[in-house]
Amino acid sequence: MSSTISNMPVLNIKREAELDKNFAKTIAKLAHGEQIYGCIQCGNCSSTCPLSPYMDYTPRKIIAMVKAGFREEVLTNKTIWLCASCYSCTVECPKGIKITDVMYALKREAIQNKIYPKRFTIPAMSKAFYDTVKSTGRSNEVALLMRYYMRTNIFSALSYVGVGLKLLKTGRLAIIEKQMKRKQDFKKMLKDSEN
Amino acid sequence: MKYLYYPGCSLKSSGKSYEESMLAVFKHLGIELQELNDWNCCGATNYMAINEQSAMSVTSRNLALAEEQGGSGEINLVAPCNACYMGLLKTKTYLENEQGLRDSVLQKLDSIGMKYEGRVKVRHPLDILVNDFGLDKLKMAVKKPLKDLNVVSYYGCQVVRPITAFDDASDPVYMDQIAMTLGATAVDWGMKVRCCGGSMTSTVSDVGLRLNYLLLKEAKRKKADIIITACPLCQFNLECFQDKISRKYGESVNIPVVFFPQLIGMALGLDKKELGLQRMFVQPQYL
């Protein structure tokens, strides 16, 4: 337990030696641009973000933490996974920071280093989607959700049964989908890009 | 007018009526769409979160297919789903601007005997209708003007963001203009480009449902009769979870949510079934 002032835990106080000084450089490279160094902490990103009220750290804070080198705190946090890639921050940023690309870069870095929040549903959905497309070339909602609920909580699927049945009734569920012809090529290409 | 058409996965399943209505309307207007043969998933947002190079390779295979099938010169590829549209446009733009990325993606394509030269122009049906076909011509085709119908347009994200190839990034108006051309009243509101949360209605449903609750509630407050949208995921979230949202928040948020070509089709006098209206959870009484 960290030290406390009244009941507030004092987190995020680190000595310089504990920070990862290369973190910003890594992320800038992965996120297609050096613009993060120019962040003026104006908060336009956080105010326009529809998800920021639900985040532990707002986008503005995340950028500051990346620049300062709080690698572990950023990568293990759920916040970055709440980014729905709506790009409003990217459009509103006066310094041209591709904030959505920064969030993508952080997600990938967390996955690659296996330090993403493993029990959290959003990375589980991303992985389920990735695997579904990798195996068939297209995303099938039934296959995708099966994979997703197997990875998370199979019982939580129950609350969606009503919607599922209605979709079935209105012919909006593709049970058998048309297959790709050159699926083997597609798989080969993906196998190569993962090496 | 002839275009190559990339449907994407959703237009073959939950967003089926988007495809049905768009094909019917475009055919009626004399705009020919030819489906891209052997297309694959665009990668959507999830792919980008796991492996960017894979994501861009997956997307660029579709661009390469368009060049294989679209003949010489510039090729117009129409992608109606917001996520597909943005994925294709973003990949195309990034490949143009970053040599390292381009080299590695082209190499992947080469390994399966494909190539991409950069001749594809990614287009959205809204862009085609307003800029290629023209609202004047659309107005002339209207048979049943949609009088006394209050419409709010919901663009969602990714259709005018982050790359704005048409319309406006913060205050898009194309769908409003289309609604007015059809004789309806376009109600202005502040939620046009406020994200619906995408797959969050399944993953973090408390957050996902709340985002959609706020959108539906605001549409009701503005006295809208109907919401029109251009994205299969937005439509799905806004329409299919209405019962769940009404129960959760203890108030009715019931309102029809249709794809914009369905609204056009009704004004053109097309058959309801042709427009896939029987697939909607909430039947638009007016139509």
Write the layout of secondary structure elements.
The complex is a heterodimer of chains A (195) and B (287).
Chain A: E1 4-5, E2 8-9, H1 23-30, H2 44-48, H3 59-68, H4 71-75, H5 79-82, H6 88-92, H7 99-112, H8 121-136, H9 141-151, H10 161-169, H11 183-194
Antiparallel strand pairs in A: 1-2
Helix pairs in contact in A: 8-9
Chain B: E1 2-5, H1 16-29, E2 32-35, H2 44-50, H3 52-69, E3 75-78, H4 82-97, H5 99-111, E4 120-123, H6 125-133, H7 135-141, E5 150-154, H8 174-181, E6 185-186, H9 200-203, H10 205-221, E7 226-229, H11 232-240, H12 242-249, E8 257-259, H13 260-267
Parallel strand pairs in B: 1-2, 1-3, 3-4, 5-6, 5-7, 7-8
Task: Please give a quick description of this structure.
The complex is a heterodimer of chains A (195) and B (287). Chain A is 51% helix and 2% strand. Chain A is an all-alpha fold.
